[in-house]
Structure formats: structure tokens, C-alpha cells
Amino acid sequence: MTTYPSTYATVPTEFITAANGITFAYRRLGQKQAVPIIYFGHLTSNLDNADPRIMDALAAQHEIISFDYRGVGATSGNDAETIADMAKDGLAFIKALGYEKVDILAFSMGGFIIQELMAMEPTLVRKLILAGTGPRGGEGISDVVRLTYLDIAKALFTFVDPKFYLFFNSTDAGKQAARLFLDRLKERTENRDTAVGFGTLQTQLHAIKVWGHEPPADLSVFTLPVLVINGDNDRMVPTPNSYDLAKRLPNAQLHIYENAAHGALFQYHEDFVKRALAFYAA
């Protein structure tokens, strides 16, 4: 069995060209398996935005793969303009890797994308974790544009990463969790990914705004096991959306972390990993 380097901070970036002509940048670690975990990241995330504590811990028992969306980081092409197009790209990437079945960990915008992908390829996903996300047309999803710009402006004035405000509560515990998370994202010191530009932010926010106004999907057709995770004070994708997802997905479990926001899985990464490993193994 092939084993990939065991830390996300040092694993090399690989490249593969899919049938759609896009050359995807990706990283994988853990022992190669027939069913890997594919990580779908958040708004404007590149490979360096995956939490190394979560990636390393999951890789102890699974093969886990992160990738850059089209036009993002080191992946080729222009930014996908719709959530559906991002889903088509994600599907092309998974097929290029040769997998017939995958498990998914999807955070925030990644959760929007994977819902569209499953509608396109209903039998591809075996088990799914949806963190800090919501359904198409869900409560307050289209408002993420306004909130994101406000918090980016606040971050510029206070000289911090916007995720400090977007992902975490403004409590002492939230601020401490934010600092620790942002420090973890800096652990990789060599061969870091290409920075994400403002144009990508604009394009992805527009895609989210449109998706947030679209009619809800029939989620009852997805009978696979789903674990829904969020904090009790998610401002980006309001927490009621997690309750909505769990109610509309027939085989869903729900866990809401107290005193946490959008990035609850990063704030409580040790507990999240335990839950994720148990869920994937069940």
C-alpha cells in the first residue's frame, strides 16, 4: 500500500489534468485507500487554508485529499462563476484521480458545492460531513457578501486575517481559538500555494449570492449518512441552516458546538476529529 508523507505542513503539492482540461493542484496524505476523504474548502481557500491538525489527524486512519478550485491557487483556468460549475470541476477532479466512491468533508462554500455535485452524481459519495454550511436558498446565505466585505474592512483596519472575525466569536475564547488556528495555517514554510486574489473573492461571492437566492433542492433524495457540524453562533452561514440540513437529510446526525461560530470545527478540532473518525468508521 502506498503511504504519503504524514504531515500536511510538508506534503508535496501534486498536479493532475482532468477531462475538462483543468490542471488541478492537490495534496494528499495518509495510506492510499479505495475510498479517500476529499476536502472541499471555504470561500477563497487555497491548499494552505486546510487546518493541518484536522488533516494530519484524519490521515492517521484515512487517505485525505485537498485541492484548489479552478482558477484558485495553483490550479489552472479562470474562476468558476457558479456553484454548479464548481461542482462540475470537483467531479472532474475526483474522476481524474480514478475514484468511484469517496467520502467528503465539506466546509462552508464547500458544502454548497458538494450538494450540487451529489445531484449530478448521486452514487459517488459514501459518507458526508457538512460543516458551517447550509442548503441552497437557505436563511441568510445570500447575505454572506455584505458580511464578508464588512469583516474584511475591519480586518484591514486591525491588521489581522479576515478569518479572525469571519470564523470565530469576538469572545476571549473565540479570539484565542482564532489566533491558534491562524498560527497553524502558517506552519507550512516551504512550497506554499499561490495567494488568492481579490478577483476570486468577487467571483465566488457573486456565485454564493446567486445560489442563496435559488430555489431549495429536494435533499430527501440523499439517503447517505451525513454528519452536520456547526457552532451555535455562525454569522456567515447562520446556524439555523445546520438544523435545516439535518432535518431535510433523511440519514443525518447534528452536532452544534456551544460558544463557537462558523469555524467551530477549527476551534474544537480535537473533538471534531474524534467525531469525524467515528462517523467515517461506523
Brief summary:
The chain is of the alpha/beta class and 282 residues long. It has helices at 52-59, 83-97, 109-120, 144-158, 163-166, 172-184, 198-213, 240-248, 264-267, 269-281; strands at 3-4, 14-17, 23-31, 37-40, 64-67, 102-107, 125-131, 226-231, 252-257. The protein has a single domain (3-281), classed as Rossmann fold (3-Layer(aba) Sandwich).
Named at the architecture level, the CATH assignment is 3-Layer(aba) Sandwich
CATH topology: Rossmann fold
Instruction: Give the CATH level 1 class.
Output: Alpha Beta
The percent range for strand residues is 15-25%
Q: Given the helix and strand composition, which structural class is it? A: alpha/beta
* CATH homology superfamily name: Alpha/Beta hydrolase fold, catalytic domain
Low-confidence segments, ≥5 residues, pLDDT <50? none
Strand count? 9
Q: Percent of residues in helical segments?
A: 25-40%
Give structural notes.
There is one protein chain. With 282 residues, the protein is α/β, with parallel strands linked by helices. The protein has one domain: Rossmann fold (3-Layer(aba) Sandwich), CATH 3.40.50.1820. The protein contains 10 helices and 9 strands. Strands 1, 2, 3, 4, 5, 6, 7, 8 and 9 form a 9-stranded mixed beta sheet that branches. It is globular. It starts with a strand and ends with a helix.
